[in-house]
Amino acid sequence: MGKQSKRFKAALKAVDLEKNYSVNDAIALVKKNATAKFDESFDIAIQLGVDPRKADQIVRGTVSLPHGTGKQVRVLVVAKSPLDQEALAAGADYAGFEEYMEKIQSGWTDIDVIIATPDVMGQLGRLGKILGPRGLMPNPKSGTVTTDVAKAVKEVKAGKIEFRVDKGGNIHASVGKCSFAPNLLEDNLRLFFTTVFRAKPATAKGRYIKSVHVSSTMGPGVALSESELGV
Fold it and tell me: Which of 1, 119, 149, 159 gets the most CB atoms within 10 Å of its CB?
């Protein structure tokens, strides 16, 4: 573990590591501890009682946060004309086909989300070794493979995010910025948690939600009482 800064140590002293906080108290504490010189993200980490090695226990999905993430999401739409122009009109940062296929092939991944039309997925799939590890490969289940590119762009720009359980059985996501008002963070937090809860695989046995923590980008985790999350 790396050396902890004085700022982090001070924030850690304010957190009772043996306590499960209420939603309101947890949000207040995370906001108080967000003392970095930039607007830190408000993050959630959920430990699940699933086995991600089993295909039928992979938890994934999307959720449209009511108040967005507070981030400027850079969107590339890989599509042929005229859908590329529709994407740009809807707010995509980049749109096109051959030009961006070549750029990605050369290692360009300066984007946050890629949306693609079904007819280009055969060629885009060949770039899986580049896009896959970065979580950028479009997927029909997340709504990023579609012919309605305008709708998809607007949803992503408005705060639609994707989540997927990692190899350790955890889900991580940013559900806002620490500068958000507490009620906005609470709305986003509750909806995200409820969406993950409802995505429980039918084959998952035992306790599904093992723990829930929230934190700022640079701050310590604060344990939440899941009984207060409305499930």
Answer: 149
